[in-house]
Specification:
With about 400 residues, the protein is of the alpha+beta class. The protein has helices at about 15-30, 35, 40-55, 60-70, 85-100, 145-165, 175-180, 225-230, 235-250, 265-270, 285-290, 355-365, 370-375, and strands at about 1-5, 110, 120-125, 190, 255-260, 275-280, 295-300, 305-310, 320, 330-340, 345-350, 385-395, 400, 405-410. A hairpin with a 2-residue loop joins strand 12 (about 385-395) and strand 13 (about 400).
C-alpha cells in the first residue's frame, strides 16, 4: 500500500480531492453490515476521520473522545468506563474483516493502529503485471528423446511461473480458525487451570479447605506440603493432555508460546498477546470471560451445567459431581474464540464441565477434519467473527469419545 498521508506532528494538509475520496471510502465502509448495525462504531470512526482530515488529530485522546463522541462527563473515570478503548478495538477488528473481503484490494485503506486513535490512510498499490509463460524456441530436432526432454523442461518452467504468480492459496478451516492467534506478532500465552485443593492429610484436618492460601498469596506462610500437594503446582491430567495437543499444534505452525498456571496469570499477562485458556471450573479466567456470553458455566453445589442465555432455565447439559467416576456417560464443553474488548487480544477457550469435556475440546481444536466439517455450517466470514461452539462427548468407562458440535453461536 502506498501511504496517502501520515498523520502526526508533521501533518501535511489534505487536498480537497483527497478529503472527498477518503470520506467516500469511509461511507462505503460504514454502509457495510460490519458497521451499519451499530451506533457506536460509525460515530467514533466518523469523528476521528473528520478530525484528522481537518488537521486536528492532536485532540484524539481517550478522555476527549469519551466526552465529544459518547457524551461522558469531562472528569469521568476512563478505567471504570473504557467505552472508547472497547469501541476502538471493535473498529480495528471490523476494519480488518472489511478489507479481508475479496475485491476490496483497490479501495483506499483507512487503518487504526493499536494504541492510537489517529487513523492512517493509504492508497492501494498498483497491480503487478501478469507474467506470461516464456516462449522457448525449439529448433528442428532429429532425436525424439531430445525433443521430449525439451518439451518436459518447457512445461516445468511454465508450471513454475504459474505457481509463482498464483495470487492466493486458500487456508484450511483449521488455519482460518487459528489465524488471529498464529498471525499475531506476539507469543501465545497458554494458561492452564489449577485447583486450590488436591487431597486431604493430617495437615488439613484442623482447618477448612477454603482457608488454604493460594501459592501467589505473599502474605501467607506456605509450607512445601501445601505448595506441592494441596494445589498451586498441580494440574489435572485431562488439562495436561489438552495442553499437549495445543502446544503440538503451535509448534507445528512455528508459533512461540509461554505456559502459565491460572493462579500465576495476571490481567497484564492477558494483554501481552493472544491467550489460550485451558480448563473451565478450575480456571478462573475462563469463568470470568465466558460468564457474560451466550454459553457459560454454572454451578449449584455439586451440580454443574452449561447455561444458554437464550434458554437459561434449561439444564439438559449438566453433570453432577456426585456421580461415580466410571458411571459418567456424557460430558459437555465450550470452545470460544473471541476478541476480548478489555484486552483487545484474541482469546481461545477450551473447557469442559469435567476433564473429559476439556479433552474433547482440545481434540476438536487440533483436528482439521472436525473444524472443516463445522465450517461448512457456519455463516459467511465466520473466521473473522467471534465464535462459541458447544461440544458434547460420550464417556465410556472413564474414557472420552470424539467431540460433537451440538450448538453454535457466531457474532
Amino acid at each position: 500500500m502506498e501511504s496517502l498521508r501520515s498523520s502526526g506532528p508533521g501533518h501535511v494538509a489534505f487536498s480537497e480531492s483527497e478529503r472527498d475520496a477518503i470520506r467516500s471510502q469511509m461511507e462505503r465502509m460504514l454502509a457495510d453490515p460490519l458497521f451499519k448495525n451499530s451506533k457506536r462504531y460509525p460515530a467514533l470512526l466518523r469523528h476521528i476521520v473528520e478530525q484528522t482530515l481537518q488537521g486536528e488529530q492532536e485532540d484524539l485522546r481517550e478522555r476527549t473522545l469519551g466526552v465529544e463522541v459518547f457524551g461522558r462527563e469531562p472528569n469521568y473515570d476512563t478505567n471504570a468506563d473504557p467505552i472508547v478503548r472497547a469501541t476502538a478495538g471493535e473498529i480495528r477488528k471490523r476494519i480488518a474483516q472489511y478489507y479481508y473481503e475479496h475485491g476490496r484490494e483497490g479501495e483506499i485503506r483507512i487503518e487504526l493502529s493499536p494504541g492510537s486513535y489517529v487513523p492512517v490512510f493509504a492508497m492501494p498499490a498498483a497491480k503487478p503485471a501478469v507474467l506470461s509463460p516464456p516462449v522457448i524456441p525449439i529448433p528442428p530436432l532429429r532425436s525424439r528423446k531430445l525433443r521430449n526432454g525439451i518439451y518436459i523442461g518447457a512445461v516445468a518452467i511454465v508450471l513454475g511461473v504459474l505457481t509463482w504468480s498464483r495470487p492466493w492459496v486458500p487456508r484450511s478451516a483449521l488455519d482460518r480458525f487459528w489465524a488471529p492467534v498464529l498471525d499475531s506478532s506476539s507469543s501465545v500465552l497458554l494458561c492452564v487451570g489449577q485447583r486450590q485443593f488436591m487431597g486431604s492429610s493430617p495437615e488439613t484436618t484442623q482447618q477448612s479447605i477454603s482457608d488454604l492460601p493460594r501459592a501467589n498469596d505473599s502474605s501467607a506462610v506456605i509450607t512445601l506440603f501445601k505448595f506441592y500437594y494441596l494445589g498451586s503446582q498441580n494440574v489435572a491430567f485431562h488439562d495436561v493432555t489438552t495442553l499437549a495437543r495445543l502446544t503440538g499444534l503451535l509448534q507445528a505452525k512455528g508459533k512461540s508460546y509461554r505456559l502459565r498456571g491460572e493462579s500465576s496469570t495476571s490481567f497484564a499477562d492477558l494483554r501481552d498477546g493472544p491467550v489460550v485458556l485451558v480448563g473451565a471450573l478450575d480456571n478462573d479466567w475462563t469463568m470470568r470471560l465466558t460468564g457474560a456470553m451466550r454459553f457459560s458455566f454454572e454451578r449449584d453445589n455439586d451440580l454443574f451445567w452449561i447455561k444458554d442465555q437464550r434458554n437459561p432455565s434449561n439444564r439438559d447439559r449438566e453433570v453432577s459431581y456426585l456421580t461415580p467416576y466410571r458411571q459418567l456417560t456424557e460430558d459437555y464443553a465450550i470452545i470460544t474464540r473471541v476478541l476480548e474488548p478489555m484486552t483487545e487480544r484474541t482469546v481461545v477457550v477450551a473447557g469442559g464441565l469435567t476433564g473429559f469435556g476439556t479433552m474433547a475440546a482440545g481434540e476438536f481444536l487440533t483436528n482439521p477434519s472436525y473444524i472443516q466439517a463445522i465450517a461448512k455450517q457456519l455463516p459467511k466470514n465466520w473466521e473473522h467473527k467471534n465464535i462459541q461452539l458447544l461440544i458434547a462427548t460420550k464417556v465410556i468407562d472413564g474414557s472420552s469419545g470424539p467431540p460433537k458440535v451440538v450448538d453454535q453461536y457466531v457474532w
